[in-house]
Amino acid sequence: MKVGIVGSSGYSGAELVRILSRHPDVELAAVTSRQLAGQAASSVFPFLRERMEELVFTGSNVEEMAGSDIDLYFLALPHGVAYEFAPKLLEAGKDVVDLSADFRLSNPETYREFYADHPAPQLLEKAHYILPELTDAKSLKDLDLIASPGCYPTSILIPLIPLVKEGLLDLESIIINSVSGVSGAGKKLAETYLFCERNESVKAYGIPKHRHLSEIEEQLSSASGSPVVVQFTPHLVPMNRGIASTIVVDPKADAPLQEAFQVWEKYYGPKPFVSILPTGQTPDTVHVVGSNRVDMSVTEDPRTNRWIITSCIDNLLKGASGQAVQIMNLKYGFDESAGLNP
Amino acid sequence: MKVGIVGSSGYSGAELVRILSRHPDVELAAVTSRQLAGQAASSVFPFLRERMEELVFTGSNVEEMAGSDIDLYFLALPHGVAYEFAPKLLEAGKDVVDLSADFRLSNPETYREFYADHPAPQLLEKAHYILPELTDAKSLKDLDLIASPGCYPTSILIPLIPLVKEGLLDLESIIINSVSGVSGAGKKLAETYLFCERNESVKAYGIPKHRHLSEIEEQLSSASGSPVVVQFTPHLVPMNRGIASTIVVDPKADAPLQEAFQVWEKYYGPKPFVSILPTGQTPDTVHVVGSNRVDMSVTEDPRTNRWIITSCIDNLLKGASGQAVQIMNLKYGFDESAGLNP
Amino acid sequence: MKVGIVGSSGYSGAELVRILSRHPDVELAAVTSRQLAGQAASSVFPFLRERMEELVFTGSNVEEMAGSDIDLYFLALPHGVAYEFAPKLLEAGKDVVDLSADFRLSNPETYREFYADHPAPQLLEKAHYILPELTDAKSLKDLDLIASPGCYPTSILIPLIPLVKEGLLDLESIIINSVSGVSGAGKKLAETYLFCERNESVKAYGIPKHRHLSEIEEQLSSASGSPVVVQFTPHLVPMNRGIASTIVVDPKADAPLQEAFQVWEKYYGPKPFVSILPTGQTPDTVHVVGSNRVDMSVTEDPRTNRWIITSCIDNLLKGASGQAVQIMNLKYGFDESAGLNP
Amino acid sequence: MKVGIVGSSGYSGAELVRILSRHPDVELAAVTSRQLAGQAASSVFPFLRERMEELVFTGSNVEEMAGSDIDLYFLALPHGVAYEFAPKLLEAGKDVVDLSADFRLSNPETYREFYADHPAPQLLEKAHYILPELTDAKSLKDLDLIASPGCYPTSILIPLIPLVKEGLLDLESIIINSVSGVSGAGKKLAETYLFCERNESVKAYGIPKHRHLSEIEEQLSSASGSPVVVQFTPHLVPMNRGIASTIVVDPKADAPLQEAFQVWEKYYGPKPFVSILPTGQTPDTVHVVGSNRVDMSVTEDPRTNRWIITSCIDNLLKGASGQAVQIMNLKYGFDESAGLNP
Prior knowledge:
Four copies of one chain form a homotetramer.
Chain A: E1 2-6, H1 11-21, E2 27-32, H2 41-44, E3 57-58, H3 62-67, E4 72-75, H4 82-91, E5 95-98, H5 108-114, H6 121-126, E6 128-129, E7 145-147, H7 151-165, E8 175-180, H8 195-198, E9 203-204, H9 212-224, E10 231-236, E11 243-249, H10 257-268, E12 274-276, H11 285-288, E13 294-301, E14 306-313, H12 321-331
Helix pairs in contact in A: 7-9
């Protein structure tokens, strides 16, 4: 099976190249990048030297992509761009896994509120948002347009959705603080992302209405069956990769902490990429960087009767490219962990 | 006027040396350190070369300190050690500003709950906890044992106390997330503080009952007149200095955001070390590192009706040594900013 | 006395603002920046809040500068721009201290070889390159166009010039490796200076002919009286500030190491900003960051008979803005250390 | 085939666990650590969760190791400790790959000069120092005690040995500067390795006689057939992993730069872990971190007629654990790249 990557010059694209070039079940047959077109991929990705010397960046001509013999395209593009590529690829019978926000929301109104007018709202009905741990793998087989979840949302939804679904939480009480490494901002050339601006610096941003709220709330609402509104404050910290989320919630009056662990165990027990730490331990981003894992735990504060949920992911892997490959693995019947580090 | 520093080898002690060696109104006449006794201070602090070549670390002999002609001692010692020095110094008529937790709590029960049995509970009655912006400078003149506030508490109490005092907040709703640079842990030789363990790593710790909770809650309770219990989750991030606190609160039903700014302006308007940013801006630790300032702001989330308060300090300055010097400045009638950067 | 800063939005400009706004002997009366014109300086530099609220960025209109009552302008501009401002300011009787490379070389041919055609070669004759420790302060009084030295060159010339002047070194043997924090590159918006590109990364660059070679070699040649050619390899390392230079040289056959220290002592003994560490100690950038000091030492390798000279500076202070203020202090008869940290 | 790791709690040990737990041709059957004995390996190495839950740290009882069914032991211990384990393991017919300095030198006098009296000098004759790219893989089959090279030496010897062997260099001219991430110091609990001491800091150390000189010079002398003495100055920089070496040499009078590339091509052309960059490009540590590659290049300075060789490795992989596994792969006839990233 042949796969291609559209938008290979960003950080998520680079991770896709790294994973797919070593994946045992697929051949990485195309990498596109407007700015790198014509260059050998191995000149940009030294790990391809000696192995894939022949792979060359092509421009982003969607007609050529549609006419190729590639089965699956990953779109690693900014939001507002991915939607230009998806329709033609789908028409040509290709499968598409999109890593942008363009197909993550089911409601074009929400997209407009948080992003802009959606340029192809009809596609939102065709698209499916897939958190692989919360989806029946068999149902993926026939989906041809899949939205891979965002980075902050993955770190938040994996721990929260089961607790919400099982009715353990007071839905008005959810307060989330997240900190992210700088690669979450991509390679945007803005002064604020220069080394000397972010090094030795921490700040909250995106208050009170970061774009990822739309995705978090739509999924939590869907899980609970009623609208959920949460508080979400992201922060940038001086490291390359990793997201740590700290979520404070009020459990429903009679829910003992043990029940949270039981619910998690029920949903994630045999899952290779969710690791539940005992209460009292807190996950550390350094343990998940380079892996596709979510590490998470929950502690009760007997003084406030609140639960403090902590979770960590690598924002470029479980929060982007690793999860997209995990989706591919499940959809095509490969080993769920193929090409990915636990 | 002559001042001395007891415990000069830690990060707070080093900042005190830096500030006091350049202070226009005092002479730094003694620096003590058990481990550095006998060494020239300029061999440890290169900025003293060419200026204070004669200053030599002495051991920590409290009798000698008591017999010296030094007027004021700063104690930059771990908690559970400072109390050994204070009584003799006070008896000898010295003034003491303590940077540890030993004299910050008025209730020995609380000290026992969060630290250990207090070894000198009778001193707690003599000691005064001073947040300089919230104290009448004239009242400091006659205090001889002053507890300088802790780092996390300073970043939290400066924004919160006025709002609590003026009754703007639902006191059960206070949820605090803080991130701190690693110098907050001092020079403790533990694997977790090695460069490679903290670099590229973020994690929550001290859940659910970090020691600084005792100080935060005692002060908020005192401000409100009734017991206040808060949620507080600290995190370590890979930078040397700086604390950023993000505080989510429910305002009382009818409090408009504007009132928060009015209250802050009333309490802090003419204060040189509190800087209030307009709503929508968020403080960045990088702007306060090296200064004695608190930068803070507050934003309303119209979707949740909550306020998100953000604040930043340099944990070693406003959160420790800078604040201790600010207290000295006010107590002795020096310019409040003498020796300190705004 | 009134001073102004042309080009206040870069890192060197910001340091000048910081130093001059607190300087005891001058008034910072103008800050210019094309991109920030019209904004309050305190909105960009929070340390000006509460103190210099009235200072506003102006555009870079050289006619207005020439007509102002400002006595001295610091030019903190990229090379190839500073020369546009100097002539009109000099004509209007202003003094100019330039921090760029535009006036550092005496030979326009060298400027062309390393930069480009010099647009105002006649100014090179008027300009004076001043390393303050190696200049008689009295001679500065009448200079109206002074070039402040570059960052790498300062870390290299301070230790080398005395040894070269006194004939202690084999001039063909000088091999220099330097490492610099990223602020040396200024705020250039290029992918290579993004946080995630420089964090956790080290590389040599500018091989074999970095621009600063022109300045290093011209000064060493002038010191020795004959052309000197050196090997110079700079590297970028993931920190904000600081330069460490390691210089390997062959001493002349009979020169004992002690003589190096004697020569340094003779040139720098009473100088406030040069600190000579005993052999066996190596300077650490962390000790000079925030100060205007050079820390330096030299060790002999008995196995190779070479000397290894090590030096450290803060590239934005002794390597740029601090040194420029030191020059001003000496020229106008202020205390050499006024406004600067030792 | 079963393998074990003696000393699994350091950084090199952790990398060995990571690589060997995923290696397609071997079973990681034992991990020892005095301090972690009895703990589940997956509690320390989260990537083992869900996969190797049964692996438990054992103490370092060499009798038990000798009696086990493990074929090959990797020793990831400090120098001066490894020699205690090797003899009994060899007697019991085990193979040993040692990552310490204990078996790297052939001459016990040199070991004494740079380390201490060698406690088992007779073993030095049995041991073989193996740089895999410079060894005939067939010759490894019968070696039972192999010393894996050190980190700085690997980054230096890989580029230099071929040039020295082919007589291209003036052997008295070799001047090496290296910078290393902090993991090179292991997990030593010393103040100098605390986060706040190394962050934002660069310094030279180990001048003029770092221990790795002994290994570098012995190998270069062996390659040239006559004693070689080099200048070597290492530096610590604030990053976790990676070494960059910059080597300045005088080529023999008539050697054109092209010949350096031809020699490298001859020695390393088909080698999977040596990547030769064209002149003018300089390797960057960030490209080799996580891989077992050496990236290297060389540039001529026409002004000085010197060559500037630059090289980068991941100090924990090609400089330690990756190289040790590469040696195993070649010795046992596995694919040279098995378990390793190119």
